Amino acid sequence: MSGLFELAMPWWEFVLRATAVYAVLLVLIRLSGKRTMGQFTPFDMLLIVLLGSAVQNSLLGEDTSLGGGVLLAATLIALNWCLAFVTSRSQRAERLVEGVPVVLARDGQLFRSVLRREMVSEDDFDEALRLNGELTLTDVRIALLETNGTISVVKRDSDGGKGTANVPDAANQSGSGDSSGDSGISDNQSRGTR
What we know:
The protein has 194 residues and is α+β, with helices and mostly antiparallel strands. The chain has two domains: 2-97, no CATH class; 100-191, bsu07140 like domains (CRO Repressor, 2-Layer Sandwich). Helix content is 51%, strand content 9%. It contains eight helices and four strands; from the N terminus they run αααααββααββα. The chain has helices at residues 11-31, 34-38, 42-60, 66-89, 91-98, 112-117, 122-131, 187-191, and strands at residues 102-106, 109-110, 140-145, 151-155. Strands 2-1-3-4 form a four-stranded antiparallel beta sheet. Strand 1 (102-106) and strand 2 form a beta hairpin. The chain is elongated, with a radius of gyration of 22 Å. It starts with 10 loop residues before the first helix and ends with a helix.
């Protein structure tokens, strides 16, 4: 019972380990794409469980104390809070951590190269159309892959017009200005003015 609160290494090493593992996993998850976090399949759930097991030893080392576990949990929660605090106050940090929405379709035209790059299958896109009440691609004014991995669809007006939503032109997108939709929309365009 006396070993319950005795740490096997200095407290700062727990904090350092938790910070390093948090940063590495954040980068890996960000590099894996928006769709990784947008929809969980059984394979994604398995990945989460395996990631937890894989980083356990790098977090704890040989420590099995209650104090070590509580210190690690507190450090991870504090890191998550700090990251949320920074990204809520800095558009640059938010873009770096979360990315920007990406145009998947515009005015009835699907950008298949963007779907491939973002790892979105046409079946997933069709499902998003159905969930948004759309029946065909021709009904779509714009479809965006949001930073959380969901697909948002803005429907054209019923009279066949371009609708009334404030949606940026592909030519005004950041990057090359290519109207094929290969680049993401800028942060200000996706959220409007603040």
